[in-house]
Every structure is written in C-alpha cells, then in structure tokens.
Amino acid sequence: MKRILPILVFCLLAIAVAIAVYSFAYRANLNQLRRTGTVQLEQASDRLLGQLAPFQQLPNLLVRHPTVVAALRDPDTVQAANDFLANTALTVGADAIFVLNLQGRVVAASDFERPYTEFGNNWGNPEYVRRALSGGLGFERGIDGRTGARDFFVSRGVIDGVAPPIGAIVIRVDVAQLEFEWEGDQAVIAFFDTANIVFVTNRVELRLNSADANLEDHPRDGFYNGVPIPKLPFRPAGVSVDNVVGAAVLPSVLPAHALVLSEYMPRVDLTAQIYLDVQDAAQNARVLAYLTLALMASAGAVLIALNQRRRRLSDRLQVEAQANARLEARVEERTAQLQATQDQLVQAGKLTALGQMSAGISHEVNQPLAAIQNFAANGVKLIDRNRLPEASENLNQISEQVVRITRIMKNLRGFARNEVEVAEAVDLSIVLADVVRLAQQRLRDEDVELRHEPLSGPVMVMGGPVRLQQVVVNLMSNGMDAMADADQKVLGLRVDVGAETVRIYVTDTGSGLADPDRVFEPFYTTKDVGASKGLGLGLSISYGIIGSFGGQLSCRNLDVGAEFCVELRKAI
User: Fold this and answer.
1) CB contact at 8 A, 361 and 408
2) Are 99 and 158 in contact (CB under 8 A)?
C-alpha cells in the first residue's frame, strides 16, 4: 500500500497537469482564433460596404440627367429613358434602375422587358422614397414577394434645375450578385437584419434563415409577405463558444462547436456574425495535453525505475552493512587476539634480549658485589686496627655499590615486565647509557668495537624509557649478529638532534640487508629459524613500538654494512 499510494498521487497529479495544459492551450488557441476572426469579420463588413458604395454614388450622377428629367416631364420620352436606364444598369452591374414620380408610380424602368417588370406599378410612398423626395439619400433592403430575391434599394430625389425634387430615382441591387464573390470563403459569415433574419451570407443554405421564431415585430415584415422563412435558430449577437443549434440541421455548413463573433454595421443596419470552427483549437489543445500526459508518464516511469533501483541499492547496502558489521566484529576480535599475541611476542623479545645480555648483566652485578666484598674485608681490618674513619669510608662505598645493584635490578625488572608505556618525555641520554652498559659484556665477548659519543646533557624525546631501551638493544643486537663473520666488527651509535626531531643511528659493518623493503615485515628474517636465532619479529615489533611513540623507524644499506634510524619527536 505504501508503494501504490505515491503512484496514485503521481497519476492524479499528471492528470491535473494535463487538464491545466489543455485549458491553457485551448484558451490561447481561442484567443488567436478570436483575433483572426475579428480581422475576417472586419474584412467581410468592409467588402460589403465597398460593394454597395458605387451604387450609393450612382443616384447622384443620374438625378440631374436630362433623360431622367425628361421621363418625368414628357411621357413621350419614356422609352428613351427605359433604354438609357437599361444600358446604365448593365454597365454598373445594378439589378434594375427605376424612376418614380411624386405619387410613387414607376414611370421608367430598366427591366421593362422582363416578365415581372416594375414599369407602371405604383409603389406607394415607401420610407426610402420619402427620404429621397425630402432631399436625402434613401436606403432600404427588402425581398421580392414574387421571386424571393433579396435586394438593397438606394434612392435620390430627381432635380430639374432647382429644388424641390420632381420625382425619385431608385437603384435596386441584387444581394445574390454581391454574394457570388464570397462563396469561396472558408469561414461562415452571415449578416442579420433587425428581425434576426439572414439577409446576406456566403453560404447559400443560410439565406433567409431566421434566428428568431417571431417575425410579427419586424418593422418591414411587408417585404417578407409570401416568402417562406425557415425558423432555424442561430446564436444571438455576441461572443460565445458553444454548440451551434443549427448545426444539427445543416451539419455541412455550420460547425458543431463554433466561436461566434458579432459586429453591428449602422450604415446598412445589419449585424455581421462569423462562425469559426473551434475543432482545430480543441484538437491542438488535446494533443498538447496528451503530450504532457505522455511526458509525465515517461517521467513517472523513470522515477519509478530510479526508486526501484534506489530500493535495490538500499537493500544491497543494508546487506553489505550487516556483512561489514559482522566483518568488523571479527576484525576487532582478531585485532584483540593479534594485540595480545603481539604483547606476548614483545615480552618474549624482551626475555630473549635478557637472555642474550645475561653475561653482561652478570658482569654488571658481579662488579659491585666484588667491590662490596673487598670493602667489607678492608673494613674489618681497619676496625681491628682502630682506623674508624677509613672503615666508615669503606662502609659508604659498600652503600654506593648496593645502590648501583638496586638500579641495575630495577631496570631489569622494568625491562622484563609486560608493562604498557604511554609516550612521555624521556631523557635519551639516560636510556642510551643504560643500553650501552647492558651491551658492554657482549661487545667484549664478541670483540666488537663500539663507536659512541655519549650526550653531553639531557635530550628529551617523546617515548617510553623501557620500550625505547628495548628497541635500541634489539638494533644493536641485530648489528652484532650481522657482523658475526665480518673481518672488521664496528658497531656505531650516534644521535643527531634537530629542531623538532631527534634521530638515533645504529650502524654495523656486516653483510648488509638483502631486502631493505621487507625487513620490518613480521616473520621476515635472514637468520636460521630457531630458539637461538630468532623468529623474524624483533624489527617488526620495534617498528610498531616507535610508531606508537609517533616516530618512525627506517633502514638502508651502506657501502659497508647497514644503517637503522630511529626518528623521535622532541619533547616540548
């Protein structure tokens, strides 16, 4: 459940993002479509006004024409007027041109040869004629009750020299002829009159369709007498994006979903509407939404894969951590065992060194014992002779020899004990003096020359006195072992005091080191393995002891023999 919940949340988030992208893209596409539709609607309105403009100017050219004036003054000139009007209508593209007298009777007409000519008919006193007779420009639209033709009427008063007008000239413009140039337009455009009836359009199917079922309130409904008006509802004037109701009846003409833009044209008293199909806008928005959803799904798949990989890695790391913990526990256990073993080996090394130095130790102890014996015998004789001051001096000498023996035994006990020493300030001059004294007897027995200049004063270094003594004794003992078969046996011991460190150099004139890089490895030795020769641990132990003091033990071959260097920190 814990793993499914994040996936469900991500899916819901992806759907929400896709919906937001669709909404944003759809609105952006509609705004672009609205701007395009506004331009197209303005162009259509300007085109209609441009087509009507020549016909609105034509009456101004004809109202003073002699032929027109003569038709109103002399009935004998009517035929000439008919011919003139017919030629003029053919030239300018008007459907028909009429001349009316003051009573509204057509006295001359360009359609005098047509079956349904208006010649001789009495139109009465329509509004656009009254306006023309009053000196203005009349304009009206209407439908021929006999043919169903839609027409614009433009009228002007005829002037015979001076006002008032003696009649009117009327230009009839066929709307179908104007629409002929529009049929190739892609967008659906319709011009509604005040009764919401399509009077002009670029789609034949929409002509005279009504956007209002009630035609009784139309101020010019007389023009529609006898003309069938389909009651097909359209969107009212305004801007909307909705289902176009008429699309169900005329699916080949009107889009099912359309952006409807409207513009009122006061010069012709019509409302222009354009119907723009929003299907492409919606489809583009859906494509973007699907792409967004696909990208989110891809990102989700990547995240799921990464999460699974992270979980597998976490599980593997956990297993490795447990294994490492077990391994560390075993390492700690083995380290403790090795440390104990090392301590035992160190102690064994000490005892081995003690064994090797036993002759020197015996000599060191025998000397003060022999002196004590001599001083005691002399003291008895001096007391017998009553030479008490001299006897007292012998007793003081005996006391000094006892102190000397005590110091020797104390050093031996500290060297032999398995004690742990921490790095502390140690006087190197005292340590080296004790080392030389311990090695003195072996040097004499093996005829080894020791070249050593004792320090003139205290030199304080960081270390432990017993273990540092053990290291130097071990290095000197190894040097003497290396010179067992040498013609010249010279053992060097010198000290170099620096600004921050002190170096102790132990040199020999033996055969040198076979492999200097390995001498500090445990159990590496060039001696015969055995109780009397060694196990190859002395230098390894010495290396660890110096390292515990924060120092460093190194070695190198000389032209003759080898050199070991113990580098220690100076005590502050």
Assistant:
1) yes
2) yes
CB 419 within 8 A of CB 466: yes
Positive or negative: CA dihedral 412, 415, 416, 422 = positive
Which amino acid is present at 132? A
β-strands 137-143, 150-160: how paired? antiparallel
Contact 509, 487 (CB under 8 A): no
Q: Which two tokens stand for residue 396?
A: 């003081």
Rounded Cα–Cα distance for residues 112 and 99 (Å): 12
Rounded to 5 degrees, φ, ψ at 523 are 70, 10
Question: CA dist 402 to 115, 354, 371, 373, 523, Å?
Answer: 168, 21, 10, 11, 41
**Residue 226 corresponds to which amino acid?**
G
Q: Could you tell me if 540 and 520 are in contact, meaning their C-beta atoms sit under 8 angstroms apart?
A: yes
Residue 305 and residue 321: Cα distance in Å, rounded?
24
Query: How buried is residue 280: exposed, middle or buried, by Cβ count under 10 Å (0-12/13-18/19+)?
Result: exposed
Distance of CA 173 to the CA centre of its chain: 68
Instruction: Encode the chain (572 residues) as per-residue pLDDT tens digits.
Output: 566 777 788 788 888 888 888 888 888 888 888 899 889 989 989 999 998 999 889 998 898 899 999 998 988 899 999 999 999 999 998 999 999 999 889 999 998 888 888 888 888 888 889 999 888 899 998 887 677 788 999 999 999 888 789 999 999 999 988 888 776 777 888 898 887 888 898 888 888 877 654 444 443 344 454 445 554 444 444 444 554 444 444 566 777 777 888 889 988 889 898 888 888 888 888 888 888 888 888 887 887 788 788 888 888 888 888 888 888 888 888 878 877 776 666 566 655 655 555 555 565 566 567 667 767 877 787 788 888 888 787 787 777 667 667 756 665 565 555 455 567 899 999 889 888 887 887 888 899 999 998 988 899 999 988 788 888 988 998 899 889 889 899 999 999 999 999 999 999 999 888 888 888 876 666 665 443 444 455 787 788 888 888 999 999 999 999 999 999 999 87
182 token code pair: 């529009």
Write the DSSP assignment of 84-109 as a string of letters: HHHHHHHHHT-SEEEEEETTSBEEEE
Nearest CA among 211, 230, 92, 209 for reference residue 154:
92
Contacts of 545 (CB under 8 A, 6+ apart): 346, 464, 467, 468, 470, 471
The encoded tokens of residue 124 equal 């009465």
In order, the DSSP letters of 37-54 are HHHHHHHHHHHHHHHHHH
**What is the Cα–Cα distance from 195 to 209, expressed in whole angstroms?**
11
pTM passes above 0.70: no
Rounded to an integer, what distance in angstroms lies between the CA atom of residue 85 and that of residue 110? Answer: 5
8 Å CB contact between 123 and 144: no
Report residue 257 as tokens: 């979903």
CB contact set of 419 (below 8 Å; sequence gap of 6+) = 466
Contact (CB, 8 A) for 197 and 211: yes
